[in-house]
Design a protein that fits this description.
Layout lengths: L1 E7 L19 H5 L1 H15 L4 E5 L11 H14 L4 E5 L19 E3 L6 E5 L4 E5 L23 E7 L16 H6 L4 E5 L5 E4 L4 E4 L15 E8 L2 E9 L3 E9 L6 H16 L11 E2 L6 E11 L2 H7 L3 H10 L6 E11 L4 H5 L4 H14 L1 H12 L19 H19 L6
Parallel strand pairs: 1-2, 2-3, 3-4, 6-7, 7-8, 8-10, 12-14, 13-15, 15-16
Antiparallel strand pairs: 1-11, 5-6, 9-10, 11-12
Organism: Sphaerotilus natans subsp. natans DSM 6575
Keywords: Hydrolase
GO molecular function: hydrolase activity
Amino acid sequence: MRWRFLHAADLHLDSPLRGLDRHEGAPVEPLRSATRRALIALVDLAIEREVQALLIAGDLYDGDWDDFRTGLFFHQQMNRLASRDIRVFIVRGNHDAESRITRQLPPMAHVHVFESRRGGTVDLPDSGVAIHGRSFSKPAVTEDLLPGYPPPVPGRFNIGLLHTSLTGNPDHDPYAPTTEARLIATGYDYWALGHIHQRQVVRESSPCIVYPGNLQGRHARETGPKGCELVEIEHGRIVRHEPVVLDVLRWHRLALDLGGIDDLEALARRIDPAFEALLAGETGPGCAVGVDAGAASRLHCVRVVLCGRSRLHGAEAAQPGLLEAAVRAQALQQAGRLWIEQVRVELASPLDRGALAARDDALGEVLREVDRLLADPQALRTWAEAALGAGANLPAELADLRPERLDEASWRALLRDAEAMVLAQLGRDLTT
C-alpha cells in the first residue's frame, strides 16, 4: 500500500513582526497574518493530496501565547484534518518547548505530541509505519537527544522526528546537537528534522534526512520559497519526496548593479525588468524547486540593494532619499504584488578617488583628511566631537545618535557619507 505524509517544521504561528510602524505603507495585515495563512495552505494541501499524516518537527509556535486565540486557531485547523482522518505528530522545539507554553487547550485525539522526558513511539501496524519523537523540555537544549530515542520497530518504515541544529549552523542556535552518522546509526528510514529555516536534504537515502525549511519566511533575512516536504512510501521504501512551496508572501534581496547608469530614467529601465523577473520567479535562491501552490496570489517583499559605480552616487549624496523614492515609485506599477521593505544605497563614485586625492586643491585636501581620519579612529572621534560642538546636545528621542554612543563603524560610515556629499558638490563636473 502507498502511505503519504507531509513533513513541516518551524511554523512559528503568530510570530510577532516588530518594527512595522517604521515602514510607511507597509502591508501590515498580510504580514501579520502570513503564518496563519501558510498553516491554512498546509492543511489544504494535506486534504488535497489525501495524506495519512502531518509531521511537525518543532517550533509550531513562536513562544508563549499572548492569549488563547493562537491555540484556538491551531485547533480549528487540526479539526479540519480530523474530519479527513489525517493524523498529526508533533515534537516541540526551542520556541515552543514544554516550559514555554503555559496556556493549554484540551488534547485532540488525532494529534500526538511527543513528551520530553524520553523518546516515544507511535506504531501504526495497519500502515506499516512507526513514528518516533522527543520534545524539548526547555528552550535551550544543549545535549544530544538521540540516546533517548527508541530502537526501530521491526517490519515498519521508521520515521524519526527531531528538532536539531545537527553539527551547527551560523544562522541558528546550537540546540540538540547531533551528527549525521548518529542519525544513520539509529536504523530509521526517514529523519524529519526541524530548526534550520532553509530547505536542505542532508542525505538522500538509507536514511533520507531532510530539513523542509520553515513554512513561511518572517523577515527580510528569510528569503526565497518556503513550504513543506511531501513524502510517499510504498512497500517500506520511499518512492517520492519533494518540496511543496506554500508561503503566502515571499522575501527577496534584490541587488541591482547601476554601473554606467547616470540618470533616473536609466534607473527605471534597469529596475522594471528586474521586478518583472522577480515576480515571474526567475530570480532568488531556490525559486525553481518544488510545486508552487500559490504563485498567483503571493505578495513579494523586497529589500533592494543598489550597488556599482554610478554618477547617481553624487545625486543621492546631494539629495538623500532620491534613489529610494525612485525605486518605490517603480514598485507602485506592480499593482500591489510587490512591496519594498528597504532600499540600501551602496553605490560608489565613478570618479578616480586616488587621482582626486592627489590634486593640489581643496578637493584633494578634503580627501586626504578623510584618509587620515579613517586610519586613526581616535583622531576621527576627537575631530568629530570638536566639530559637532553644541550640536551634540540632541533631544532624548535621538539619544542613540549622541557622539558618545556611536561606535567606530558608525563614525566611519558617517565620515564616508560626508565625503560623498563633498564629492557631489565639489566634484560634480569632474571627469577624472
